[in-house]
Amino acid sequence: MPAYGKMYPYKFDQEHTIVIAEWYTRDTKAIIDEALESGGDPDLSVAYTINGQPGDSYSCSNGSAYNKTVVRGKTYLFRIINSGMNEEMFFGIAKHNLTVVGMDGAYLKPLKTNYLMITPGQTMDVLVTANQTPGRYYMVFSPFVDTNAPSNKNVTQGIFQYNGNYNHSKTLIIPELPGFTNKSDAGNFTIQLRSLNSKEHPSNVPTKITRNITIAVSVNQQPCPANQTCTGPNDSMHSASLNNISFSAPSISILQAYYNNINGVYNRTFPDQPPTLFDFTGNVSALGEAANVTTEVLKIDYNDEVEIRFQGTNFGAAENHPMHLHGYSFYVVGMGDGNFSETEISKYNTVNPPYVNTVGLPKNGWAAIRFKADNPGVWFMHCHLERHSSWGMDAVLIVRDGKKKHQKVRPPPKDMPPCSVSSS
User: Which of 28, 143, 210, 260 could be cross-linked to 423 through a Cys-Cys bond (beta carbons 3.0 to 4.6 Å apart)?
Assistant: First the structure.
């Protein structure tokens, strides 16, 4: 939303929210608890939904689908939210172009396209003009699955329909979307995104980096505990890590431990670089896949200008990882396939990179982000594929207090209900 008294930098007639989600036949908490206990993959969803409707491609929908009725000549702002748990999505509307104008709460330079690629945790603002022959057109979410991990390759369909008199029984047109495994189209969409970078909405990309961090992102395996049957690969347990650390959640919240100076809850030794350098995206079969299961935090000074380079690895079922940081939006200054090289720095976009809070790290590729650490606190950073986050593809960033009063972590409210062991 624009600031009070300001206008949008684009025009539209109506706005609507579209939420893509996954539908399970069982309680999702029970599903993940069982998977973590056995070390195997969690059950897949049985359907995708648009605003709660699975669409007429599923027998369980009774032919129902989300319908959006439009007036020819009008422009609609669709606020699209991927609230799904484990699948990235392509999206399109048959015969209609899309204009992406915002992402994760920040404006973008308008990008005209006939499809989107949106990961779990991402939001996009998209303009659609109803400028085709009045009729009924499918709008479709189709998964992007660039891995050999189990996945749900179903699609969900809504209907973009014009008002007025026409043959409503005519067969609906389906949009042409990239195939399930089309890594190049997924990447080609993402690398076109640019910030608006106007006088009213400037890009403030950090250029004097004081903290440089590289994080290797991996899917791992852990040995099966003694006297237990495990259902992961080769009778092991699924795991995941950042810089070979598989995050273990403590019984006391890290924010509570940090604020109250409680010792023994976490370690302060999350490394700024992968502990071992190797061909991250090459043949890793000779390397062990077990990570260190521990609770580590990464401490950053207030007002540091931070660059984090996420490096995908070829361990396990390599795939695109939507990396998300709480407490901050960040600029995606670079992205590419293969191993990161210092020569890429000269190719960074520091003029108008997208300002987002989630970035899709390409399969066996890299992504570089920048932000200014001006929001003190304890912030979770994780892959937004829930199975990976549950397996330990997480880390905690602690941004230290600044010197001034408004640069310090606020105290907990007096009426905050207890949720864990207290130091008092």
Answer: 260
